[in-house]
Fold:
Amino acid sequence: MADNKTGAADRPAPVHYEDVFFSTSDGLRLHAADYGRHDPATRGRLPVVCLPGLTRNTRDFHDLALLLSRDENTPRRVVSFDYRGRGQSGWDKDASRYTIIIEAEDVLSGMAALGLEHAIFIGTSRGGLIMHVLAAMRPGAMVAGVLNDIGPVVDGAGLAQIKAYLSRMPKPNTWDEAAHILAQAHTKSFSALSDADWADFARAVYVEKDGKLVPDYDPALLGGLKGVDLNTPLPTLWPQFEGLGAMPLLALRGEHSTLLSHETLMAMKVRVPSLQTFTIPGHGHAPILHLSGIPQILSQFFASVDRQHHK
Structure:
């Protein structure tokens, strides 16, 4: 599947989006969405790698990727990954392999397969935790990073909310019903979203299989959450976060987030004074990156990274 909409008027109209597949070291077939890959205007500019949340997929980044790859002044190649068990990637027969470490290794395999030596990373929720691991595993892969509503301390109350919601996620019969269900569940946290945004949200979360709408991930993924004891403090990742702080770093927090607290965000700024932070009004966990002026925030950050990278 490809998106054949034209780019800027003063450039040829490249194909802006393609599905690509690659194999991991254990033979699983994984998917990535690649934007601007064949547009000559993106060459020589830092690409962007997008990493989604726990049960999410490349569709979360589709609108943002189109904006970035078609930018009239600084178009970039954008690659977003479906982890194993999500989206168009294969499901792992061994659910114990749905781990952040293995998913980080898969991202590196995907970068190698797609010829990406290094990039600016955007990590939403679990994607940001994967970035923390990559800071220790392969720091050279990341030139700069954006942490979307995630940090080295995961708030247990927020994780409990996610766990509870996913465990009883309704099964809608129609796309309109799916949008309504999501809006009912999340409107308090996401007051900035319109009816059209909720409809888009539904298309990112659900997929049609055998005539039914189902969440687009392997249900076995939730097994990892069942083993988390929310009565004890969760492990923190401060050393890994400080590793991320060696590069330009931006942190976004949803105003109503229950996973990344304001206190943790301030503590992150103390540990890494160069960290740029923005709180996004009308969003919870995690801010939707193509809405509420976030693309402009990202573009300004990317421009500053470009200037530092080319010094």
The chain has one domain: 2-161+231-306. Confidence is low (pLDDT under 50) at residues 1-12.
